[in-house]
From TrEMBL:
Enzyme category, top tier: isomerase
Gene: truA
EC number, UniProt record: 5.4.99.12
Keywords recorded for this protein, A-Z: Isomerase, tRNA processing
Binding site for substrate: 110
Source organism phylogeny: Bacteria, Pseudomonadati, Thermodesulfobacteriota, Desulfuromonadia, Geobacterales
CDD domains (alphabetical): PseudoU_synth_EcTruA
Residue stretches making up the Pseudouridine synthase I TruA alpha/beta domain: 7-104, 143-245
GO biological process: tRNA pseudouridine synthesis
Species whose genome carries this gene: Geomonas paludis
Catalytic reaction equation(s): uridine(38/39/40) in tRNA = pseudouridine(38/39/40) in tRNA
Protein name per UniProt: tRNA pseudouridine synthase A
NCBIfam families linked to this entry: hisT_truA (TIGR00071)
GO molecular function term, any single one: tRNA pseudouridine(38-40) synthase activity
Length: 250
């Protein structure tokens, strides 16, 4: 038996998220159908986490077990020949049998991209969310620093979040401006449902002067969700990379 780890890149625009569900086409469903066609048998993909409808990934990690002896390159090339143009396997590696893409993950890097423009841009409509008007970027950067460390993120989770605890650790968080695009890069031990999108919405309100640094500090002490920013749309969010201990095969 072999345990194969895949690094997957996808444009989530046309999908109802990663995880298989009855009410829409998902990345996992498409991937598992391609796997079954290539292997001649069903294989279940265990991913590092879920992404919601419309969210993208450059570095989603998923693993599956198989007894097939084909070379690693064949897993990558074979799957890519069967997948649609908006999903691609970037890498395939063999990892220990006890490796699990979700449970062995140590940290994740997400990026949320905003288009700072009063006019819409057709070229980035699927990968960035447009924010009109001026933002105080330096105030937003100051607020970013408040998120670093271990905090109670109860005010930054979706209404249907089922996590048992709302405490998470953020290792780094910064804003990077690239012309009209503003990227929020956030690296943390784990994330609650919609957490990055609510943090982004909160930072935008800081940039608009609607929230202050003191407001953010209060929210990070287990504040009320209603006092945080909006849940920004999904298209600006991308899972960039998942990090694992060296001994687990990363």
């Amino acid at each position: 038996m072999r345990n194969i780890k895949l690094i997957i890149e996808y444009d989530g625009t046309a999908y109802a998220g990663w995880q298989v569900q009855p009410n829409g086409l998902t990345i996992q469903e498409v991937m598992e159908k391609a796997l079954a066609k290539m292997l001649g048998e069903h294989a279940t993909l265990h991913a590092s986490g879920r992404t919601d409808a419309g969210v993208h990934a450059r570095g989603m990690v998923a693993c599956f077990k198989t007894e097939r002896t084909m070379p690693l390159r064949a897993f990558r090339e074979g799957l890519n020949s069967l997948l649609p143009s908006d999903i691609a396997v970037r890498d395939a590696a063999e990892v220990p049998l006890d490796f699990h893409a979700r449970f062995n993950a140590q940290a994740k890097h997400y990026r949320y991209t905003m288009l700072l423009d009063d006019l819409r841009s057709p070229l980035v409509r699927h990968t960035a969310w447009r924010v009109k008007g001026k933002l105080d970027i330096e105030a937003m950067r100051a607020a970013c620093r408040l998120f670093v460390g271990e905090h109670d993120f109860a005010a930054f989770r979706g209404a249907n979040c089922a996590a048992k605890t709302t405490v998470r650790r953020i290792y780094s968080m910064e804003l990077v401006q690239e012309g009209r695009l503003l990227h929020l890069d956030i690296n943390g031990s784990g994330f609650l449902k919609n957490m990055v999108r609510i943090i982004t919405g909160t930072l935008i309100e800081v940039g608009q002067g609607r929230l202050s640094a003191d407001d953010v500090a209060r929210l990070l002490k287990g504040g009320d969700r209603q006092n945080a920013g909006m849940t920004v749309p999904p298209q600006g969010l991308c899972l960039m990379q998942v990090f694992y201990p060296a001994q687990s095969g990363e």
